[in-house]
Amino acid sequence: xxxxxxVLTKAEILDxxxxxxxxxxxxxxxxxxxxxxxxxxxxxxxxxxxxxxxLKEAVTERWLEQKIVAPLTEVSSxxxxxxxxHLKRYIRGLIELKREFSRNDPEMFRMYAEVTExxxxxxxxxLSVITGQLESLIAAGMENGQIRSGDAGALxxxxxxxxxxxxxxSHAYEWSAPEIDGQFEQVxxxxxxxxxx
Length: 197
Fold this sequence. Notes:
Layout: H1 10-24, H2 31-38, H3 42-46, H4 52-77, H5 83-104, H6 106-118, H7 120-143, H8 152-162, H9 180-195
Helix pairs in contact: 1-2, 1-4, 1-6, 4-5, 4-6, 4-7, 5-6, 5-7, 7-8
């Protein structure tokens, strides 16, 4: 195996790990597979990540940041007059992103679902970002009198959990059902009656 003469960057390692995970799947990919792609020994990778699990978590963290959080941050930063509609657009964006990746990037989505069960800290941090953005949208709606005043953080948590069937990876098998969009609209209408003025 040819050793690289230059120091590996985090991005190089994660790019190779992501490529290996897509090629072999999350269950079959080994640290050795990633090392082969980088033309280094597997020991070199263990200097950066202590285990296969740690490497998978790092890949998942970057994937979530790039593919989920970044697009949702764009949605949350849009300027919209109707704050309740803005909130719905955000939740809809979360749902559409998860569906898109479950269909079009199945290996990475499967790894994300697996890491969701195993890496509580990573997922807690990810959910904190999402619910924090929801809280900001809700607080803006409360300020302009479109959303009933109250605890914006508690409402953000409630909306996130009430809509989880439509964006949590454990429900991905349901997302191709033809009635799923109508069911989301029913849930949203019920929720909205409780907080929209």
